[in-house]
Amino acid sequence: MTVETNDIKWVVACATGDIDEEDVMRFDHAGASYAVYRIDQGFFASDGWCTHERAHLADGFVVDGEIECPLHQGRFDILTGKPMSPPVCVHLKTYPVRVENGEVLLGVTSRDEA
Which residues, other chains included, contact 1 with Cβ-Cβ below 8 Å and sequence gap of 6+? Predict the structure, then answer.
């Protein structure tokens, strides 16, 4: 299901119960791949691919509000996408998320889907 508001399209990524606390899951939509997280502060989303090398972050580990890449163990802050440890040095793009009726919605724009 997709709901549009302004220039953001809200796409259902999963149900809230699909992600355990302190975990991540992969979500693919319109040719793009995302990582959807559940941490103490709530649900969050980012690009799915590490900015260092081509490893999907959904195969990584969530530790203290950070996602650790499965390939070289670089870490990103889940809330901001900021690189937290080498070898990652390029920010990870993050996306707005909201929860409605037990579903996690990811906010994308037409630029994100291009």
Answer: 11, 12
User: What is the model's pLDDT at position 113?
Assistant: 54
- CATH of residue 105's domain is 2.102.10.10
User: Do residues 45 and 106 make contact, with C-beta atoms less than 8 angstroms apart?
Assistant: yes
Helix (H) or strand (E) holding 110: helix 110-113
User: What mean pLDDT value characterizes the chain?
Assistant: 92
Which domain, by its residues, includes 87?
2-113
pTM: 0.90
Instruction: Read off the pLDDT of residues 63-96 as tens digits, 9 standing for 90 and up.
Output: 999 999 999 999 999 999 999 999 999 999 999 9
Domain count, the chain: 1
Task: State the amino acid at position 1 in one-letter form.
Answer: M
Q: In what order do the strands lie in the sheet with 94-95?
A: 23-29, 32-39, 42-47, 94-95
